[in-house]
Amino acid sequence: MKKLFFLLTIGLCLFRLQVRAEFVEDSFDFTDANQDGITLYYSYLNGNSGPVKVVCPEIWVNDYDENQQYIGRHSEPLLYTATIIRVPAQAQGKPVTTIGDHAFMLDANLTRVELPASVTHIEREAFSSDSLLQYVNLESVEWIGEVAFQSCVALDSVYVPASAADWAMSVFQYAGLSRIVFDEALTAIPERMFFGCENLQTVVLPDALTKVGLGAFAACDSIASVQLSASLDTLEMGAFMDAPLTELTLPASLRYIGAMAFRNTENLPYVTSHILAPDGVLEDMGLGVVDEETPQADRLTIRVPVGTAALYLADEVWSKFNIVEQGDSTGFEEQHSLPASPAVRKEFQQGRLLIIRQEGTTYDPSGAKVK
Question: For 112, left (φ over 0), alpha (ψ -120 to 50), or beta?
């Protein structure tokens, strides 16, 4: 339905552009042809002696009724018809540093954009809903505005530079990405950056990354595997919400996991945690919830570092899961090895790990006698 609506919108825009039109006065400062002879439209950023940005000028479209009587006019953005656009480094002697708001938005023919190193800024919705766009180079880009590549469904892969930590929210929302290459120096992923990217299956975060923003990978309903960075400090609310993960390892560096960060992870058989001080790290049951009414705590196992089970069980949220210390063949891994002696084994009761050291006497992980 969304695709049909989009195609109808494009068709309507193209139909309207067939009627007589004239440019709005002062909608751009000058035009200049690139090396392929394609006319691009520019506006000055800091007066006519400074750098310039590529803009999408409006045009006036004359409207007629069913009897072909003139009834007024309205303005619409100009759509480029080229499939490949190479933005020049200079236009009329001025450096080109910016792709402006809506500059190439809804360009149904555009498949490839080549940006010069001089372009450091891409403004809001610059390429939004370019349904055939497959390639754009972002290595030199320092800042990108909100939803700049939203719904670019043909954009299969992208390189994300270190500067992306400062980009606006939702840059690649609903894009067709199946592969993301992160710069190893990237330290943060902004809010909703890849929200709804349905083709993503594997995410490998760079080692320098410390923060995944709110909903950054939410609604990416094909992600089965995510490799969190060893320096990751914060997972904001809903970071991987509704991603159908089949494996998850939490690094020791994590100090905060926001609400619903891993909601709807019913495919997880267990979670491996290397967190040594779990108190207050997990905000709510979002780590293992099918939905708000159906918690998974009765079956989801958290494998924790040896000697830390008591700390996890002392935390209000972690204690609702089955806590098992890693490397102990008498607990979670019992199914993969021979059972231990009946005198030394582990049992689960109401989601808590209990240690039986001798028949008839049960101790909790801290060594206190239970019965």
Answer: beta
State the pTM of this model.
Answer: 0.79
Where does residue 351 rank: exposed (0-12), middle (13-18), buried (19+ CB within 10 A)?
middle
* Contact indicator for 225, 248 with CB cutoff of 8 Å: no
CB-based contacts of 169, cutoff 8 Å, min separation 6 = 146, 190, 191, 192, 193, 213
The set of long-range contacts for 121-126, using a CB threshold of 8 Å and a minimum separation of 24, is 121/53, 121/97, 122/98, 122/148, 123/53, 123/98, 123/99, 123/148, 124/148, 124/168, 125/101, 125/150, 126/99, 126/100, 126/101, 126/102
- Report residue 220: phi and psi, to 5°: -90, 85
Q: For the chain, how big is the Rg over CA atoms in Å?
A: 27
pLDDT digits over 157-202, tens only?
A: 999 999 999 999 999 999 999 999 999 999 999 999 999 999 999 9
Kindly report the number of other CB atoms within 10 A of residue 183's CB atom.
16
- Are 40 and 32 spatial neighbours (Cβ–Cβ below 8 Å)? yes
Among the listed residues 122, 85, 118, the one whose alpha carbon sits nearest the alpha carbon of residue 100: 122
Query: Quick check: 306 and 333 in contact, CB under 8 A?
Result: no
